[in-house]
Write a structure and sequence with these properties.
With 158 residues, this protein is α/β, with parallel strands linked by helices. The chain has four helices and nine strands, in the order H-H-E-E-E-E-E-E-E-H-E-E-H.
Amino acid sequence: MSTVKGNKARRTTYARCLRPSTRRRAIALCVGLTCAIYATGCIERTVSITTEPEGATVFLNDEEVGQSPVTVPFTWYGDYDVIIRKNGYKTVNTHHKITTPWYELPGVDIVTECLIPFTVHDDRVLDTFVLERARTPTKIELLEAAADMRRRAAIGPE
């Protein structure tokens, strides 16, 4: 019987520690922290590539990303190898640097990626790549190039 009184005394002491107003504050704090964790923002990064004429195959860092015009997500800032191919046109092989914005600098990025409760969109648009028509060589030019190659092969490496 004394244990029952002991349990009752413990319950009474615990109930006094968490008054209804204190309980409401604790619940509100837990709900607020949960919402803050789930409502954190993020950054969505995209790069758009256009060509003239449209319909060229676009490669970023040796990975085919689609036909131009194309918009694709990217993960990091820095240099990207860009290769653009289309039948009847010269292949464009270049690189483009995507610079880091101020809100992605170390220290500041913690705030923008973890504490801001909305999504930041970083949409980059590269200059339009103008493709040059490939010139088909004449029969004479092909024969001269073949003769030159044959002559260099016979001589050997220099």
